[in-house]
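In the design runs reported in the main text, the only information available to the sequence generator was the tokenized backbone. The following block is the verbatim input for one such run; it is reproduced so that readers can re-run the procedure and compare outputs position by position.
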């Protein structure tokens, strides 16, 4: 969560009663509150501001499962309170978004202030690295730094820092797995992954680029589509071959491409850790 004195809560609520309760909560002292009754507006807002949101409030509805799939596929992982509006109603067996989510009945909305704090606390305890501000990028701007550390050591440190926040148990929907996609869907996904991976390669050693966010996006798409590590390697080799041909045409050495083995290791390590942590912890 961002280091700020302002606490931003983002809600997707459909019931006027719940919306009124949010407004009442807002007036009681929260620094910033935004909420929407429209799914598309909610998603658009998150695309632009997800790194400044401290907690989500989701009113359970028929479209909630689709909203959660959107959050997963867009690599948007935040503390969350899921409100189910009907008294006596029950949610399907969870977790729905992640195991640190808090479920709240509409009749308990008077506890919203406390529950949001509980959701944030539970989320941070579950994945301690999330306490690190999201704008802090763990990049490797050069192959050698003033301390004389070699690239492998730098990469090791970078991985430890990034993988620290992946303590959340993800529940994937098998109907969206790559092997179950149509030919058109497979080609579309692979094209998306190629484009993202190309951006990662081009920006990986840049101190100013948002490499970490691109890696998160790539790995999230690969993970929820159950993409294998071998397919990621194929994408890497395909791109390296393309770059090698371009360098050859320009009369330049291909040796620089060897440095991008570090990029492949970085992405694969991130993806493998997500697969490992997708297995529920034993209680």
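Verbatim output:
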């Amino acid at each position: 969560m961002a280091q700020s004195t302002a606490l931003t809560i983002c809600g997707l609520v459909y019931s006027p009663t719940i919306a009124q309760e949010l407004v009442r909560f807002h007036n009681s002292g929260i620094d910033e509150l935004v909420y929407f009754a429209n799914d598309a507006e909610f998603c658009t807002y998150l695309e632009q501001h997800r790194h400044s949101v401290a907690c989500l409030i989701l009113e359970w509805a028929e479209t909630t499962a689709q909203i959660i799939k959107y959050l997963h596929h867009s690599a948007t992982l935040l503390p969350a309170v899921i409100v189910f509006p009907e008294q006596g109603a029950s949610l399907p067996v969870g977790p729905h978004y992640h195991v640190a989510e808090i479920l709240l009945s509409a009749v308990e909305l008077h506890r919203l202030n406390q529950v949001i704090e509980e959701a944030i606390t539970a989320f941070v305890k579950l994945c301690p690295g999330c306490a690190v501000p999201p704008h802090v990028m763990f990049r490797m701007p050069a192959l050698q730094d003033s301390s004389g550390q070699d690239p492998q050591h730098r990469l090791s440190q970078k991985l430890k820092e990034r993988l620290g926040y992946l303590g959340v148990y993800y529940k994937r929907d098998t109907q969206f797995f790559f092997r179950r996609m149509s030919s058109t869907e497979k080609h579309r996904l692979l094209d998306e992954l190629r484009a993202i991976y190309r951006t990662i390669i081009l920006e990986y050693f840049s101190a100013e680029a948002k490499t970490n966010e691109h890696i998160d996006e790539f790995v999230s798409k690969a993970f929820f589509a159950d993409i294998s590590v071998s397919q990621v390697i194929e994408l890497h080799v395909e791109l390296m071959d393309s770059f090698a041909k371009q360098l050859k045409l320009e009369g330049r050495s291909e040796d620089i491409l060897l440095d991008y083995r570090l990029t492949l290791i970085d992405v694969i390590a991130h993806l493998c850790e997500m697969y490992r942590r997708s297995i529920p912890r034993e209680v």
